[in-house]
Design a protein that fits this description.
The protein is built from 9 helices and 3 strands; from the N terminus they run H-H-H-E-E-E-H-H-H-H-H-H. It is mostly helical. The protein has one domain. Helix 6 crosses helix 7 and helix 7 packs across helix 8.
């Protein structure tokens, strides 16, 4: 997406400010940049490169990120209200409870982290992929359990989410003419990846 060098520098250099409120409601109405590039081809290229980069950084099958993007149904600029008084942010609908951890991981302030998740496709994918990786590691190799943890640890909510994931996987299978679930299940998900440089993924698709 379009992102000026000033915004990127702020994300890379800003320290975590403990006094800043962690509630997204404090800054959710900031102006939203528009677009993922100057053309549809640019958008496709950026989306593809961001998905591949996030998948490689966290030892994930790219197909799983595509499936979760479809299940979550988010988009750039979207902030969705939840019944528990939290919000979900951007394409991967990253819940605001992760803001402090992602801000610390990226070495950014909480408001800049929120804006990156909301407005920068690569940052949102990196954040979502990192959260998914935490769930997979917690599940100790149980792939679908880890995918369910991306949404919830509550058994009922997790089961409902996995049904949606399966539906999207079967749709992709039908579209691609290949067995997506088998390809996903064959991936060595228990391997812990090397940590990427802080905030590196945020700049992958940055353009003036």
């Amino acid at each position: 997406m379009r992102c000026g060098r000033g915004r990127v520098a702020a994300l890379l250099l800003a320290g975590l400010v403990a006094s800043v409120p962690a509630r997204a409601s404090e800054y959710r109405n900031s102006p939203v940049p528009v677009g993922l590039g100057s053309s549809a081809d640019d958008a496709k290229r950026i989306i593809r490169s961001c998905i591949e980069a996030a998948a490689n950084a966290h030892s994930l099958p790219p197909t799983v990120l595509v499936i979760l993007l479809r299940v979550e149904g988010g988009r750039l600029g979207r902030v969705s209200d939840n019944t528990n008084a939290t919000v979900d942010i951007g394409p991967m609908q990253v819940n605001e409870i992760w803001l402090r951890k992602l801000a610390a991981r990226w070495g950014a302030s909480i408001p800049d982290t929120f804006l990156a998740l909301r407005d920068n496709f690569c940052a949102n994918l990196e954040g979502g992929a990192w959260i998914l990786r935490q769930g997979l590691d917690e599940a100790r190799g149980d792939f679908w359990q880890g995918v369910g943890y991306y949404h919830s640890h509550a058994p009922e909510h997790k089961a409902n989410y996995l049904r949606k994931v399966l539906q999207q996987a079967l749709r992709l299978e039908a579209q691609a003419g290949r067995t997506v679930p088998a390809a996903v299940a064959a991936t060595p998900v228990a391997q812990a990846p090397a940590a990427p440089p802080p905030a590196a993924a945020i700049t992958l698709a940055a353009k003036d």
